[in-house]
Every structure is written in structure tokens, then in C-alpha cells.
Design goal:
single chain; alpha/beta; TIM Barrel; 12 helices; 10 strands; binds ribulose-5-phosphate
Length: about 260
């Protein structure tokens, strides 16, 4: 794993990517700008039981302040980019949270999206550069999210290039989408990679995707909808954990999901 920076920087990244397994299960709840988030909206006030199974939460400032109890001991990866929604051009983002507020919120990392090939590609790359510069100044790691536009192909060539660019620009770790031939993505990216879950799919398929990604060199997942929109969110996150941290098979993990409680 590539780790730069001094004690504070390294300590923060170790809180997210667990040194024992070198892996992590992040729970993403930064979906407001996607629009369609059934499940999350209905239950977000009661999501605390789910949080304890996540190695880190990836979320926005408002979700953190409103939905995460301050006494919870969990690393926070704060999305600090905004300015667009599904209704407009998604790549038209800027940094919307100051590094001072991120530090005040005691975050373990900050994150923004980069849209390679998007209309505002350069702006998003400069957003990432700003985070890396500020993060290096204050000891805060940066997660780069290789977001894709509606028209973009999610293949290994594209996602590999986007992930590699993020790493070359100084991102501490990279979040991208799973695709066929995922080894081609991980093999050219010198920073650790976590995969997004993407749209809700049947639980077994989501677990298979997590397994494939780990086998292909990802260090973990940053999954949202496939966990919080599941009928058994706690079983699902435990199942994902078993794959990521314990090398469980998809069948073993699926059993864990099935044995989980319905709802939260
Ligand atoms: C989008 C994001 C989301 O956090 C990401 O999509 C993860 O959530 P999901 O697993 O629901 O896709 O960063 O750019």
C-alpha cells in the first residue's frame, strides 16, 4: 500500500484501511445528488445499527451532522465536492467544504469525484489537486472517485486510465467501478483501490462482484445502495465483510446475508 505523509496522515489511512487485513469495507451514504435513493430516506435516522459494521463511512457534511451520532467511533471519509445533480451536468462540481471544516468534523479523509472525459474534466481534476495539496498540508488523506457520466463506457481501459490519473495526481486511494478484466485496472494503479457498489442488484450478484474485485486486487469496497437498499442491510454488510476481510466464498457470504435481520 502506498502511504505518504507523517504520523497523522498515516494514522488516518490506517483507520480506514485496516492494517491487519490491508482491507476495508466503507459504507457510502452520499447519494442525495443521485435523486433516487429509496431505502436510505426511509431509514436514515435509524442507520446507526448498520454503521457499526462499517470500517468507515463515506458521506456528505449534512449527512454526517444530521445522521451520525457524535459518540460513534468510526472514521469518516467526507465528500467535499458538490454543485451538480442528476438533473444537470454531473461533472460541473466544485469543492464545497473547507479543509478547516473537514478538520473540525474530525474526518479521516476527504473525497471528490473526477470526471475523466466529462465536460468539466479539468475543473474536477483541479478539485482533486486542491484536496491533495490541502490534505498534504494538514495530514488528511484524499480519496478520488472516478465518477462516470451517463454516456461513458465503464471498461478496464477507461477505469484504469482514470484510476491511474487519480493516483498520479496524488490521491491516497481511489474509488472506481468494477468491470471485466479488473486486474487491468488494479495493475496499473499504484494507489489502493476500492470499488463502488453501483445500482442495487440481487444480493448474490453484489457479493460476487465484491469477491471478483478483491480477487483482482481491490483492497475493499465503498458500497451504498447494495447494502442500504437490501431487505437485510445488516446481513448484507456482514456478508460483504466476510468476503473482504475473511476471504469467504460467495456461498458462505450469501448464507450470512440470509441469516441477517430484516430491516434495521
Ligand atoms: C458516486 C459515489 C457513491 O458514493 C457511490 O456510487 C457508492 O455508492 P453505491 O454503492 O450506491 O454506488 O461516490 O460517485
Amino acid at each position: 500500500m502506498v502511504v505518504v505523509g507523517d504520523w497523522g496522515f498515516q494514522n488516518r489511512i490506517h483507520k480506514i484501511i485496516k492494517p491487519k487485513s490491508g482491507r476495508c469495507v466503507m459504507l457510502a451514504i452520499d447519494h442525495g445528488y443521485f435523486g433516487n435513493i429509496p431505502g436510505q430516506l426511509k431509514c436514515f435516522e435509524d442507520m446507526t445499527p448498520l454503521f457499526e459494521y462499517a470500517d468507515a463511512l463515506m458521506l456528505t457534511r449534512g449527512m454526517l451532522r444530521n445522521c451520525v451520532p457524535t459518540e460513534l467511533d468510526i472514521p469518516i471519509v467526507l465528500r467535499v465536492s458538490a454543485g451538480s445533480s442528476m438533473l444537470k451536468e454531473l461533472s460541473n462540481e466544485e469543492i464545497n467544504v473547507s479543509i478547516e471544516d473537514a478538520i473540525r468534523l474530525n474526518v479521516s479523509a476527504v473525497t471528490c469525484s473526477i470526471f475523466i472525459g466529462g465536460e468539466y474534466e479539468k475543473q474536477t481534476l483541479m478539485n482533486l489537486s486542491k484536496l491533495v495539496n490541502e490534505g498534504n498540508t494538514y495530514g488528511i488523506p484524499t480519496l478520488a472517485v472516478t465518477a462516470v457520466g451517463r454516456e461513458m463506457v465503464r471498461d478496464a481501459r477507461y477505469l484504469g486510465m482514470a484510476s491511474r490519473m487519480a493516483a498520479e495526481m496524488g490521491a491516497t486511494f481511489v474509488k472506481t467501478y468494477y468491470c471485466e478484466d479488473f486486474e487491468e485496472v488494479t495493475s496499473i494503479c499504484p494507489a489502493p483501490i476500492v470499488i463502488a457498489g453501483g445500482k442495487k442488484t440481487p444480493e448474490r450478484d453484489a457479493l460476487q462482484m465484491a469477491k471478483n474485485a478483491i480477487d483482482a486486487g481491490a483492497v475493499g469496497v465503498d458500497m451504498g445502495r447494495n447494502i442500504f437498499q437490501s431487505d437485510k442491510p445488516i446481513g448484507m454488510i456482514q456478508a460483504v465483510r466476510a468476503i473482504v476481510h475473511k476471504k469467504a466464498s460467495v456461498e458462505e457470504a450469501f448464507e450470512i446475508y440470509k441469516n441477517g435481520p430484516v430491516g434495521l
